[in-house]
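Quick question: what would this complex look like in 3D?
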Amino acid sequence: MSVVNYGTREITCKIVYYGPGRSGKTTNLQHVYSQLPEERRGKMVSLATETDRTLFFDFLPLDLGTISGFATRFQLYTVPGQVYYAATRKLVLQGVDGVVFVADSQSRQLAENIESLQDLHENLADEGLDPRTLPLVMQYNKRDLPPAEISSVAELDETLNFRAVPYFAATAINGGGVFETLRSIASMVLGRLSAPAAKGS
Amino acid sequence: MATGVKKGAEDDSGEFAEFMADISHEIAKRVESLDPTPKSSPAQRKEATPVPDAGVIREWDNVADRMIEEMG
């Protein structure tokens, strides 16, 4: 998708939070939503099961107002992490500008992290997007759990971050690292405004 | 290249404001140098034809069907 429209003076960026089930994707969006000033707080759409797992996806529109003469909007999505919602993840990835991969730091979840990352790459490729160049940020969540239960940030980064993209440790449940992550991916996406393909429409 | 790790509890106050400041700065840097057209007057801007958001999922009609399919 194009992220800047000089005709209508609009900038729109779609960011998807990807990762295995229960890694904290929805929690990231909930924290962002909780910090929005009243006048910018739209509706966060969230479809969850009775056990609070994301059933389909979450959608949080962020209307940032007019910046440098451009009406600027960020659209934040999550995908359901469970393996069997494969088609949904593909649907949500359509037109994505940047991805935040939310990894679960728990050692026993390492295989799920790897599987989800592979799934992301396959789905991006299916959408005609290059997984090697699409803006991506890694977030290693749940750093507040006991050290014995979680992998170190270095271990996670060594295993998951083979593109050597920016990474952030986070405790999304209390907001730690959430905005740093969002700021990083937003900056990367906006940085691509200089790319010829992003100047169109 | 990894830019490093930032973690820990955050001061919630002003998180969004800081985010806005950074984003505003980033956008200001970009649009000034990239804008291919001279700045139009407000009247001209009104004539621009809005286009739908490319990133918005337009297949809402199929959402329920897909959910049922996947859950089945």
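Answer marked as accepted. Chain B touches chain A through 47 residues (CB under 8 Å).
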